[in-house]
Predict the structure.
Amino acid sequence: MIERLRQTRVGMFGLAMACLITASGTLAIDVGGPAASGAGPPIPSSLSVPLSAAVTTSTGSWAVVAMGQAGVPLNTFWELFFRAPGADSWNLVTPPDVADNGGLSISVAPSGEITAGFESSQLLRFSPLAVSADAGAKWTPALLPSSLLATPDALATSGDGGPAVAIVRRSGQQVVVSSGPLLKWRSLAGSRGLANGAASHCNIDGLDAVAIGSSASPLVGTGCRGQGQVGVFSRVASHWKLVGPSLGGRLAGASTQILRLDTTAGALSALVAARTRGHTSLVGMWRSAVGAWSPSEPLEMGSSQEVIGSSIGSNGDQIVLLSTQRSGGELEIAKGPGQPWSSLPSPPSGTVTVAYLPDGSANAFSVSGSHLKIFNLAAGQRTWTVLQSTIVPIAYGSS
Amino acid sequence: MPGMGGTLRSNNSVVVSAFHTTLLHQLLLLLFFGAVLAIAVNVIRTIQYRRLGSLGQRHFPQVSSADTREPPARRILRIGFGLLWLLDGLLQLQSNMPLGLPASVIRPSASSSPTWVQHVVNSGVNIWTLHPVQAAAASVWIQVGLGLWLLVAPRGLWSRFGGLASVGWGLVVWVFGEAFGGIFAPGLTWLFGAPGAVLFYCAAGVLIALPDRAFATPRLGRIVLSVTGAFFIGMAVLQAWPGRGFWQGRLHATSQLGTLAGMVNAMARTPQPGFLASWVSSFGSFDAAHGWAVNLVAVILMASVGVILCTGNRRLVGPAVLAAVALCAASWVLVEDMGFLGGTGTDPNNMMPTALILISGYIALVRLPSPNAQPVELQAPEWTAAESDSVVPQERQRWWEWATSPYLVRLGAVVGSISIVLVGAVPMSVAAANPYADPIVSQALNGTPNVVNIPAPSFTLEDQRGAPVSLSSLRGHTVALTFLDPVCTSDCPLIAQEFRQTDQRLGNESSKVDFVAVVANPIYRSIAFTNQFDQQEGLTHLSNWLYLTGSVQQLQRVWASYGIQVDSVGYGAMVAHSDLAFVIDAQGHERAVMESDPGSGAATTSFSSLLLDRINLVLPT
């Protein structure tokens, strides 16, 4: 009898253990499950803005193109191309002797002087810079003592030894400024400094972009959570002032993000992503000399769409290349205030950057490893034609 | 060249040769110790003979062990797991273990586990990576020693200690080598090896460490079978859980193989005898076609066996254990591919241990030791508790009156086995306490330093403060010289850290050494860059650190005189330059030229060990 009781007890013990093991296993399975969602569609997360970008000024067009092995950061090299006004081809002008597989941002000063900033990668903890006043023929080295933020407009220069401003990753994100030969930089503000300095409606959500204003004053673009406020701050008499507009209509409560901020065309222009529940819209914005902002019509992105590349035309036109199921992507251009976005013909497959030239033509950079094909879309045409084809010597595994 | 190479293959001849040499040295040490032990036993026997002779006895004490036989269930565990440890130890002899184990076995097994598991595992991997030869040799000896220990010590305290030692080392292997057997990773299944083979070794070790009286009733057998049954039920539930890919032979959406078929097919592709590959491959194809049915059979079998074992019903337990052992055998061959064939196999996986535990649990339930058997540890004197089948010492009996010949031989064998464990464990413990990597890693990567004695080419450049520095101005100090690109993203920061560590390891002697780097970039070469690099690498406060630069012409002269190649290699790529370091003595003579490629960075500090050795050879007294 005692034996049977013991037997039963051991059996119960076994069953209890089984329950425990099963419960643990079930818990382990559930750990990786998706979090419960709240009511209504969620607010889309911040857009990632690729460094593949182009800018056209009166002194020429510049394009930053990611080449090599896409998806393998160490073997993705960012190449810089220049096309002079009136020229019929692009030149490879990537600054030599410095690794750019962390990323490359450029800033073009009104004089045409270009500054390339290298996002630090691997064990490098600061960002080398390279400055050229002759369209990339000769480069002068400079540096940022911290890592440059990996966005297309993380660096803005006024050229000719004038002030420069950058966003770096140091204790979070900080705006730093230099007034000399880009070797010594001082901290200007962090997110908190911007928020404190300006009695703003912007609940700052990260630093996105910088530009140099008309009076050589730094401009900082930030994300703003909720309220439809566009986060553009200007430095006025040692204080930060929120100069960005508020979005209206159905974007009135949106969270915003500055994808591009630029003054190359003389006036300030911005590309803004506005995120509401379930939707992301892109809005081009232009600021007049008297400080009034004029937006384009919003361009609503598909839920699975991403920005592949962005470009700024010589008149401040905003061009975006969005991912699509089809190859090539969706190419949209906003030409000015109040105008709707207009679609350009889908560029060829593998396109990562599109430059918009002063004559109204567009050049698409299509990449496959080391092979680059540049296609041209003449103004008013619907067909892309091959303009240039080249192989860029890439040193795979060199970093 | 920075980033241009620097990876070690697991069959690197330098490391493999060092591994074999270390094993040979340790084997010689063991043979010597064995000889000493044999002599000691003979000496003891001689003393015993003389003492017995003086008492008028003509014969040694005889064994009478009829009532001190080891419980059968315990014997199965002890011999079974002893043989398994022995096999595991022999598998560790594979040449690619020192460099291959972390990369091919440990890291992959932890890769799908949560971050905290990876952190824990990495702490062990780190020790292995820093001291690959010692770690691999230690694994051989510890496991061989444990196996022999269990095999030669059938009863008594020494035998029970063997069980505990087995638990201790098993836990080390389970945590660091098997990443907790993958129990925190998704895709947990007994058919693939969960919860880690070594956890069964630990369970067996616990059972072996139990006193004999635990085996005297069927209770232990019932507990063992119930726990195993519970484990089977839990594993059956996980196996049946939807959405884990076990029910599908092939996923319809992607045409990819299901979880089990995928695993089996992967195993079939590893190097192994042709007939085995054919069996495994056939089963993989069968599962791909009939995944649902295969999983159903597996789930039903596991669940049924589990429930029966939990009930402890004597009539059903026997067939259930038989079925479970058959399932273990089938899974071991067809799913796990015998566990150790192909790749870097370290053990035969979990099926054999599971079967051993099941069989011993069943034997413990149905076949009890003779009721006359006395727990041996109650009889043995405290200091001779290891004595197993000896004559029971009587009061006032001297050791030479009761120490039998088998007892002495067995005691010698146990001491020998423990010595084997210690020959692995002691050097490994000493190595683990050293946070710096063995120089062998750097030598494997870069070759042996060239020993020279020629005047070092002179130079005059500018240091990071703008002050002129020439090689002759450093006369009287030993100089460690290298060439670094201040905007290099990979090797140069690591080499700088190796120099910094060498400086720290020199202690007071560091005042006799200058650590000098010359810029290896024709464009990014200004003092602003050398200062920024120093700041990045924490070198600014090192008084004996000099980072020299100059004009392009000056730099090119220095590069040429030291044979340093500096080339632009592509658009967007950093400069490619030779990774060389020179040790220059206090009289200005080059005494060693060393490749300083730090490799993948996995075993940093190895170069500093090598550099330290070379500097110590030429330090001024």
About this structure: Confidence is low (pLDDT under 50) at residues 1-5, 375-393 of chain B. Chain B has three domains: 12-216+368-435, 217-367, 439-618. Chain B touches chain A through 53 residues (CB under 8 Å). The longest helix of chain B spans residues 13-54.
